[in-house]
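Note to self: user wants both folds in one dump. Writing first protein now.
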Amino acid sequence: MGGVTQRPTMDLLRSEPMQLVQLIIPVESSHRSISYLGDLGLFQFKDLNSEKSTFQRTYATQIKRCGEMARKLRFFKEQMTKAGLSPSVRSAMSDDVDLDNLEVKLGELEAELIEMNANHEKLQHSYNELIEYKLVVQKGNEFFHSAQNRAAAKQREVEAQQRGEGSIDSPLLLEQEMVTDPSNQVKLGYVSGIIPRGKSFAFERILFRATRGNVFLKQSVVEGPVTDPASGEKAEKNVFVVFYSGETVKNKVVKICETFGANRYPFTEDLGKQYQIIAEVSGRLEELKTTIDVGLVHQINLLQTIAYHFEQWSHLVKKEKSIYHTLNMLSIDITRKCLVAEGWCPVFATNKIQNVLQRATVDSNSQIGTIFHVLLTKDSPPTYFQTNKFTSAFQEIVDAYGIAKYQEANPGVFTIITFPFLFAVMFGDWGHGICLLLAASYFIIRETKFSTQKLGDITEMIFGGRYVIMMMALFSIYTGLLYNEFFSVPFELFGPSAYGCRDPSCRDASTAGFVKVRATYPFGVDPKWHGTRSELPFLNSMKMKMSILLGVAQMNLGIILSYFNAKFYGNELNIRHQFLPQMIFLNSLFGYLSLLIVVKWCTGSQADLYHVMIYMFLSPTDDLGENQLFFGQKFLQILLLLAALVSVPWMLFPKPFLLKKQRVERHRGQSYALLDTSFDDSNETELHHGSSSHEEFQFSEIFVHQLIHTIEFVLGAVSNTASYLRLWALSLAHSELSSVFYDKVLLLAWGFNNIIILIIGLFVFICATVGVLLVMETLSAFLHALRLHWVEFQGKFYEGEGYNFQPFSFASLDTEDE
């Protein structure tokens, strides 16, 4: 028996049996015990120190240390990303690394990397400055060389004019100027540098205005981008030389250069010194380039070493941090030198947890073992379903509506079949189903590769629901065979059609002239219905009635599941005064309608079911006439109508008054408690007494709640049944859209007998089929099937007020965001 209880039940209908457990762990083995429980991943800890802040807890210092190591690892990852490296996934995951040694090692690596980065920045800054200095010297050399050439040419021109004969038109001032003593000429100063090209125009205007035009600016465009020493970013720049006269103007020029972020560099007029400076700068640049390259190689080697161990270190830091977070949730008993933990675990995991705790005691050389004690509690346990990669996606569809209460009937069991089936009813086309199946098969075949990759949001969502898409595709192929539609084209897959021509003249007829010549088509819709004048009325009638049958069946399933919930929880009141009247009301009206549909199909009657249902309420005693489907129908209708009317007050009144009676009796029983009960028992009795009195006082609230519930069910029975008609509407829309794309695009292009038009038509047909029918229609049918499950089906029995079992596990550490 013990072996049987230790295995998981894998029962999706009811969540796993849970138990509240108290662990008394010696301090010396506490860390290893929590670590082993994290490896096992089957124990959810309760926070016993919720009244304390984060900084008041025992292991706040250790968590701070782990946080600091995590910061260093993030710094390493940033550096690896900049260098184009990624963490190695082949690094061995070993637990031999000690946290203290790792902390020291990470500190040393961080200091070394920071020093490398600082040296690299200084060298790179010097390198960029020398590049700019070299450009300034080269461009300045060009300025002065061209200016000297122009001055020499001007001098020669003046001398030639002086040697010639003087005339009345000769510029006297020029002659006077040229014969002036050179010692009396004004000496101009200059400032040279480099400025971003985008600021050069504004720089020139500000210079002119600030100096009132008493400067001369010369600029030259630098070909190609230049790296700025300050920001390290590449930008288009211009070399400039500003000529001025006077110290005041010089100060203004210098301030304007600083304001515009222009980098100033010294410059000499001596041509020999210019070439000497260029040679020195070029040599210095080569030395800096070699030094920078060597430093980068050393940095890359260091980062490669870090990258090899990065995953191991990161996992260890996350693991230690989560362990100390968990230890902070435990209560410390100083006198006994132990930690007290409480939490939930599945019953089947009892032996596993005890074995793990015993192993932790042995490995930590503790003299005292951990005490495992099951507690009795009235708290609601968490909900835990053991799912696999196939059932997890269907369970997530249910959990998106609400987490099941502890051991509440789980709609996920039925959703595995009903959800893809209702989707397929709206999406019935076995050609489109095959396309969906191929897409799902691609993700299923490559799931090992995709599961280790970082996918986009949409791709990850599709990959997570690959088995849901596969089931939807399989059911779509099935319903497509029932509807006999392959991209809206019918096929005689299961034998010849039951209909044929009355005579040879109607061989090509599509609207008249068919008679039944052989047995009924064995499976699905007869292919001869396609293209006939009565195709749409026939399919409309069939799909509408089929939608009602499916809807009533699923709503009945929901109400039946409410019976199993009430039976499981021992709530006889809900069985007698909720389940029974709900079943009677729903089936007296819409169950009877479903019966009429089946009888009409079986008998081939021409009765008008709209007329039957409407006059069942308006004139229940009138004769049915030609709308009578079977003997005794009138009497049955009156009986069902009375049953539906009786079921409404049956749902409304008995339950609130019986709840009130039960509470009064419970209160009276607690008033006569035994005298020899303990003090704790008397306190508990007083507590129940107070709560009972309070609940009794809320009778009006209970009655209003029951009234709302009754009205909601009565009106919902009508609206929910009508809601299932979306199955008919979307199925019709999908079929007609597919038919339009085939007839008006593909066949129309085929009729032109032109290969180019045929290729264009085929391309448009494929795009329309994929974009509209395989993407938009798939999403539409999915959302409608989701609504039918959440509202019409789960609303009948599913409360969804539980909370998930979230065990402490290291398996989830790698999936968490940084």
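First done. Writing the second protein, which came from a different request thread.
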Amino acid sequence: MNTTNMAENETLESITEHERILQEIESTDTACVGPTLRSVYDDQPNAHKRFMEKLDARIRNHDREIEKMCNFHHQGFVDAITELLKVRADAEKLMGQVTDTNQRLQEAGREVTAQTEEVIRCRLQQRNMATTVEKLQLCIPVLEMYSKLKEQLESKRYYAALKTMEQLENVYIPRVSKYRFCQIMAETLPKLREEIKEISMSDLKDFLESIRKHSDKIGETAMRQAQQHRTFISAMQKQASLGCTKPLYSLNGRTPTQHNGLHREEGAEEEESEEQVRVLTAQDLVDFSPVYRCLHIYTVLGDRDSFENYYRKQRKKQARLVLQPQSNMHETVEGYRKYFNQIVGFFVVEDHILHATQGLVTRAFTDELWNMALSKIIAVLRTHSSYCSDPDLVLELKNMIVIFADTLQGYGFTVNRLFDLLFEIRDQYNETLLKKWALVFREIFEQDNYSPIPVETEEEYKSVISRFPFHEAEIEKQPFPKKLPMSQSVPQIYTQVKEFIYASLKFSESLHRSSTEIDDMLRKSTNLLLTRTLSGCLQNLIKKPHIGLTELVQIIINTTHLEQACRYLEDFITNITNVSPETIHTTRLYGLATFKDARHAAEGEIYTKLNQKIDEFIQLADYEWGMSESDGRASGYLMDLINFLRSTFQVFTHLPNIYNDHAAMSGKVAQTACMSACKHLASSLLQMLLDPDLKQISLGAIQQFNLDVIQCELFASSEPVPGFQGDTLQLAFIDLRQLLDLFMVWDWSTYLADYGQPTSKYLRVNPSTALALLEKLVSTGQPLMKDTSKKNNIFSQFRKNDRDKQKLIETVVKQLRSLVNGMSQHS
């Protein structure tokens, strides 16, 4: 029962499903039937058979409906066909009429159609033309601006070209950006900008190269204007009564100067050239437009920083090149002038750039550049100036440094270190002056005849005293012709010292120093001239072999007058500097000490040369030491020596009298020289007797020697030089006199008895001297005491049996030896 019910239920469900599928097939597009049919086969087995059966039943049902419908409408269809056949004839007739009418209409409208098409074409052209004009009106400004851009580029108006590009990009091209030519144009503009940038940079490089070549001319112009300005200001100060004036020139408009009719000292105003009259500026010598143009271009392009860095870097490199001097710069003035011109030109350009542009260079940058340059300049000048041996070149260098410093100071640069350098160069300048004047002094000394200056007329006398401050009342009273005590070198030396002061003063000018400082510099340099250069020349002169006693005497006279003239040199410096010598800080001249030292050296040289001359005469001595008896007269060499001494001491009467304490210089120098000569003569004669090479001396030789000593004593007592008291001069020979008296008188008992007593007659006889001479005494050529067995006794003329005298000699020798030994033990 249950099985039957289940079967019935399944059948009802399949029927319902098949009905749904059929409805879906009927209502669905044919392309979508496949999935529906597939569901029939996916259901229960044999379901498609039942579906087919169901489908066949449905088809048959529709066929019956179609047949019913056709049967219902068949009569109407037949009626419609019948009506249509009736209308067919009328339609064909109408068709013919329409065709005919159409042909007539076509023929009639063909011309209208042609005219209409022409009108349409014209209207279309008109519209296109209007559109074209409208578009061209938009494009023409763009093309005109681009053409203007090309013209600006061709005429190198790059800054204006960049402005034109900016307008093209921001205003004109956006209006017609859809056109291809505008796109090409827009793509070209960046390239043009880079091209402009490269061209402007190339122009800048050319400018930098050109400015390096023109720096020399720029600096020369600036320094010339500064020098003319200084000259004009100096003239203006001297002629202040003529009214205020302005400087003549300017560069960069920094120091405006104009001429107002002030007459110059040389009257050269009328011959001024056009170049001097015209106001010069840096733009007159250099075209700065490349810098301005490049700066504006890089500013517009937004790359100003890189341009500023590049410009400053390149100028630093150029500054280092400018600061490199030529290796032989120190040889000529032109070398220094070119060096200074280039540096000044460089910084004049930088100053112009500083004031003509905004921020391309700054004051800090130029100050940094100047400080770097200043250190290098000072080092270069310090090195190269040390090679200068010509004072004129050093003076030219100083003047150029002053103008160089003043020029740059006018542009706001600090130059204090340059003036400090000038003080170093001043010392070097003084050294070169000292070397130059050393040659001048040597030449004067070499050309001097070392004799008093003869003056024949009053004009000659005035000529001499105009060059040298000589005032001697006694000589002025003498009639012409007469002689001045000093030689020709004295006024020449005095004149050259004044020339040296003038030369030293030249360097002190324009150093912005006070009169007191200039006075101090002059006095110090003059002191160096006197104490080192002139003193050295005098010392060398005195030591020269060809300078004789007469020349030395004249040198003493000359130094005396030069010493007296030192106070006039003091007054000369005071008149130049207008600084009172009573000022507490005023340096005094050391000439007095210089000439005193030279005079003392000359005096010492006189003593030395006099002794040398005495030695030369002594070398001419030719004693016959074995002679039996004397010649009865003094030796010829000694008489010649005494005559030489007499004539020599006569020369000393020409020495000037300036000493007031004891005696005249003539007396003092002559006395010292005479005493020195006598002592040296006595010492030389004594040494001759005691010469170790002299082994034997006869009594006759001693007698001859005594005659020569007597002549020396006579010379000393004849007062060859006045001023000696009593027998002071004879005391120089006292040692020889007592020694010879001892041997001539043979007073040994007295000598030995009184030895060591202050009142001894032979107080100045040394036992060792007496012993040495006693052992040399000979007679018949045999020693006296060396060997008593030989025939060498002074008493050999006595009989051989006279032994008492021999014993006395032996006793004297023994006692003398004991005295000598006692002296050596005591010492």
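Dump finished. Worth passing along: The mean pLDDT is 78.
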